[in-house]
Amino acid sequence: MSESGRKILNIIIAIIVSIGGWTYVVYNNDPMTEVRYKDIPVTFVGEHELANRGLGVAQTSTELIDVTLRQKRIDTNQISADDITVIADVSDAAEGENGISLQISGPSGTQVADAERRAIAVEVEESDTVEKEIYVEYRDDPEGIEPVTSNMTSTRATVMGAKSEVERVDKVTALISYSDTNNRVWNFTTGLTALDKDGDAIGHLVIYPDEINFKAYTGVRKTVQLNVVTDEKKETAEDEDDGYTRTYSAPDTIVIKGSEDAVAGITSVSTKLIDIDNMYEDQEVELEYDLPEGVHIAYESEGLVMKVKVARTESETDD
């Protein structure tokens, strides 16, 4: 081998030895470093056990904490806040204010060097229970559409928790994305969320069932005329006056939903027959409908009522 060849070989060997030495030092003697991760969510466990004892979490001193991990410098880019768990077990909490220790851990090979706090205050109060209808909604709330559902394993949910929090519950939703339906029928398995009147999620509630299965497709909303069909008597000379007059009021329009083809030709919806001639006092009647196939009532028009006013005629009053 020539002199220049030996020099090149020695250079290559030196490079290989250097790389091997660097790799050994990095992976076996890598200097440790401390990294601070912000806003790690506190996961609360034991709330089902708490509910079974007639109690619920009303409020907490915090839901997020900062955590500092001691870890190998080379691992820093592979570790994120999602790899850290902070657990608060409230299963043994008592009514009133409780100090709950936090269980904090990071990925294998790391140590918890510091935490913003090691315990939090949790206020527990007597629980309450309420039943709510389950609505399947788009989390991105696109305008003019909403899901059309079928085969729901449950249409109502039982919500348990601290009385003050249960009182805030406006509805229970199963949230999906508009892109998930994509104008075709899809199968879903989705957890449930309790919302207040502002549409904000309410935490620390136990919901049964905790998830439901259903089918859904994209429904187009459309406002159409509402025809109320009654069995009101048309007085003739042969009709006998029963001594009462009846008047009623109901919405003029209703919002329906369905596939674009299903609602395209619909201009009105009629109610099922309502017999008001046998009503003898003021009342509200929830409307039922004769709907074409594939057409459904949109959420905003659910629960529409007809208000009936009943009064005695003058002749009956004078007797």
Brief descriptors of the model:
319 residues, alpha+beta, RNA Polymerase Alpha Subunit, Chain A, domain 2
Explain this structure to me?
The chain is elongated. It folds into 3 domains: 32-125, RNA Polymerase Alpha Subunit, Chain A, domain 2 (Beta Complex); 127-219, YbbR-like domain (RNA Polymerase Alpha Subunit, Chain A, domain 2); 228-318, YbbR-like domain (RNA Polymerase Alpha Subunit, Chain A, domain 2, Beta Complex), CATH 2.170.120.40. It has helices at residues 3-28, 47-52, 163-166, 178-181, 260-264, 314-318, and strands spanning 32-45, 55-60, 64-72, 85-89, 96-105, 111-115, 119-138, 145-150, 156-162, 171-176, 186-191, 193-195, 206-208, 211-227, 244-249, 253-258, 268-271, 283-286, 289-290, 296-297, 305-312. 19% of the residues are buried. The chain is of the alpha+beta class. The strands form 3 sheets. Strands 1, 2, 3, 4, 5, 6, 7, 9, 10, 12 and 13 form an 11-stranded mixed sheet that branches. The longest helix is centred in the N-terminal third of the chain and has 26 residues, at 3-28. Residues 234-239 have low confidence and may be disordered.
Concise summary:
This protein has six helices and 21 strands.
Question: What does the secondary structure layout of this molecule look like, with pairings?
Answer:
Layout: H1 3-28, E1 32-45, H2 47-52, E2 55-60, E3 64-72, E4 85-89, E5 96-105, E6 111-115, E7 119-138, E8 145-150, E9 156-162, H3 163-166, E10 171-176, H4 178-181, E11 186-191, E12 193-195, E13 206-208, E14 211-227, E15 244-249, E16 253-258, H5 260-264, E17 268-271, E18 283-286, E19 289-290, E20 296-297, E21 305-312, H6 314-318
Parallel strand pairs: 1-4, 7-10, 14-17
Antiparallel strand pairs: 1-3, 2-7, 3-6, 4-5, 5-7, 7-9, 8-14, 9-13, 10-12, 11-14, 14-16, 15-21, 16-20, 17-19, 18-21
